[in-house]
Structure prediction request, 427 residues.
Amino acid sequence: MCWARLKEIENTRLELVLMKALVLGAGGVGRAIANIASRRSFITELVIADRNLSRAEDAVNRLKDPRFSAAQVNAAELEDIRELIRKADPDIVINAVDPRFVMPIFLACEIENKNYLDMAMSLSRPHPQYPYTETGVKCGDEQFARDWNWSERGIYALIGMGVEPGLSDVFAKYASDELFSRIDSITVLDGSNLVVAGSDFAPSFSIWTTIEECLNPPLVWEDGRGWYTTEPFSELEIFDFPDGIGPVECVNVEHEEVVLIPQKIEAKKVNFKYGLGAQFISILKTIHMLGMDRTETVDVQGIQVSPRDLLAASLPDPATLGSRMTGKTCAGSLVKGLDKNGEPKAVYLYNVVDNAWSMENYGDQAVVWQTAINPVIAMELIHEGVWKPEPGVNGPEWFDAKPFLAKLEEYGTSWHIRDESTAGIVK
Prediction:
């Protein structure tokens, strides 16, 4: 029996017995992952690590759970990550930091033969000559390029397992398996009516990541054409989000679902639209015009500073905004095509989280909680043997959607299907 197969058997046995996790990043999402996981018995040990040790300790101290501990790590340094992995000896490493740190963590897990999960995939690089028509390096390309080595080592990487990507991909998979015989389009649509009291501009999620998604050339996939790009903020439409959120201006942005979904689901078109609203779109355009989206460092009185890092440091930490935040956030997938009987069908599958509810029940603001619940559910499904990742690189749509959606309800939140207009759908 080959080494890879022996390793696979060993991993499966461990997953069914226990689940030791290492979470890298004690920001909003990392804190929420630890908080949610603390309420689940399948977690036997969890280490949460951050460059700022006190932040990791704060995340642990609020839980008062002996299974949880804090550690320090520099997620930009491969050897530092490897050392912590060896010390913690987890069954799975959860990447809860900005996507710029994906590859050091991903490679550290590969070298140390540890399973891996993230919520944002490796960064893209626009086409050097034609950034708004042709793809360069896509999100996740660097990870998928190493699929062969993960397969040989008998370990798995579950990538894009947050809310978007993640839950949105699960919705697309459910629609494909259960609702449609032909899919014409899948548009992931995210919107909210969140307001932060006392702040004219306070993003509810990492501004670093938001800039990366919104100002990079948006990615689109079409059957017969493959992947291509457009100008930022293209295909503006007003989408009426459910549960009282209402109409929001949505535009194409770069997002991982557009890479993942076409690999497992047949659809004529896949894109992602972010409900930014007119004000946020205007602010992002201004940020770009002033060059504050740049990641290259500039000299500021003898100190090398990245403009984007400076902007992020100047804005409130999204993890701290929950007590001043009101409103709801919605994540979902709009799917159009023909139903199982060959009739025109259009539905929006979605999950809404009310900030008042997530703060009351978990002490975490809605956006980070909605992101964090999904990797915890995925870990539990893997632990139970319901989801069985193959050695190599996997996405959410690699698995049956129904057990995941059942867990979503079990964890205290709900998902829904809303009928949409079937205008323009041809049989």
Notes: The chain has two domains: 3-158, 167-364+412-419. Residues 3-158 form a domain with the Rossmann fold fold (CATH 3.40.50.720). The radius of gyration is 21 Å.
